[in-house]
Design goal:
By secondary structure, the chain is mainly alpha-helical. Helices cover about 35% and strands about 5% of the residues. The protein starts with about 30 loop residues before the first strand and ends in a 15-residue tail after the last helix.
Length: about 110
């Protein structure tokens, strides 16, 4: 049976689908420059990082895999735009992957 009723939003830290606040453009990448459509900062900007962390809160490994694919696409686009003075690989790693890596829980050594 198809229903036209929308599900009631859940409570807690994990929203069903994070969305942009307000009516402005979403914080998505504008390719091939890889800047944010909404704020013009290098993507992923701070709001995009927050939305991605919320969306992948229970799957941080999946977030890392997703961001690695986007980093590859960004590398290709940015080097194609400027092959002689492309972005530094460490800068791209920090921009795309370093902030979203899975956190490991610290295990206390029993004494």
């Amino acid at each position: 049976m198809i229903s036209t009723r929308l599900p009631t939003p859940g409570r807690g830290l994990y929203p069903q689908r994070p969305g942009a606040v307000g009516t402005g453009p979403p914080h998505t990448p504008l390719r091939p420059m890889w800047c944010c459509r909404a704020c013009g900062q290098p993507w992923p900007c701070a709001p995009a990082r927050l939305l991605l962390r919320a969306e992948y809160a229970r799957n941080r490994t999946g977030l890392s895999i997703y961001l690695a694919g986007l980093m590859y696409e960004a590398m290709r686009d940015l080097y194609h735009l400027n092959p002689h003075d492309g972005p530094d690989p460490k800068t791209l790693f920090d921009r795309f992957l370093a902030w979203g890596s899975p956190r490991r829980r610290r295990v206390e050594a029993s004494r």
